[in-house]
């Protein structure tokens, strides 16, 4: 016998529309989005993805303490809330189960609701979601079965959340460890070194404009857009992510192999000045909000230097602080990086290469963890959903299955 067979012990299961199992609660007070605060005495629940969207200190009447299922009529997010709160948005459906365990309804609603794309039909569709009700003729027995299913799913939810938190903390710790070692290695506390401004080490070549309308899927000119530098690229790249029309060839500006391409614009100070060493075997076009730094150093050494806290703090002094952050290149050219053995070019390059080899290994390890841990988290989430489906795998009558 399966677990569910043992749990039901011969009791029948009836599938009922969600609308028959709940009562819609009308909020006594609501709060507008511009009144949300980071702290306050009353939490705000709206239809966004966050369980608590903000707080308010306004003298408002909350929805009383209870156990509710929350449905975002516009966003289709489903939540379970068991504390008093202020409603923070129109289109929010606050549902109080009238003949079933609220947490059980929440889990079943999550499992069986099929999202609709029609903006005006969300709730009218959602209220028809079939919910399995075990042993419907004996409410006491029915609630006992529902409570046991909830207990198991709560345990899985807690374990999944704990594991996700542990894996996320592990990833954060490894990144901090890598950043610390990189910054320490490039601080050159010991050894022969001279800190030189970028303007003395090379020149900056500004890119030329291209737009979204110029992009093509293939047979075009390889390009690097400034936004890709801080969203997709790492320390270095050998292949471009994007291409534009071949007809633009003569109107574009190019980074050469071993140039370092620098983002000149970004939404944050950290994004501006983010750099990627171009290691491709041919020139790559760059956007007019980026620069190619042409030099005679190891390009990855330069890129690593531009990641350090020391460089970022110096770079920040030369960023215009408008809505869009923009790097002022006259100032950027004055930012210094360490050059080992400055009077011996051959020895200097050898030391740069040695440092790059060390940091490449750390970077590869960190990237591996960055890729593996999210996959592990996703795997655990899939495992949780599998068991949730299994625990709610009551056989549907044919007429319900066709809804």
UniProtKB/TrEMBL annotation:
Family indicated by similarity: Belongs to the type-I restriction system S methylase family.
Question: What Pfam family does this protein match (any one)?
Answer: Methylase_S
GO MF assignments: DNA binding
Q: What GO terms in the biological process aspect are recorded for it?
A: DNA restriction-modification system
Q: Which SUPFAM superfamilies match?
A: DNA methylase specificity domain
Q: Establish whether keyword DNA-binding is in the entry.
A: yes
- Chain ranges of the Type I restriction modification DNA specificity domain: 12-172, 193-378
Q: Which UniProt keywords apply?
A: DNA-binding, Restriction system
Name recorded for this polypeptide = Type-1 restriction enzyme specificity protein
Q: Which organism is it from?
A: Gimesia algae
What the entry lists under InterPro entries is as follows:
Restrct_endonuc_typeI_TRD, Restrct_endonuc_typeI_TRD_sf, Type-I_RE_S_subunit
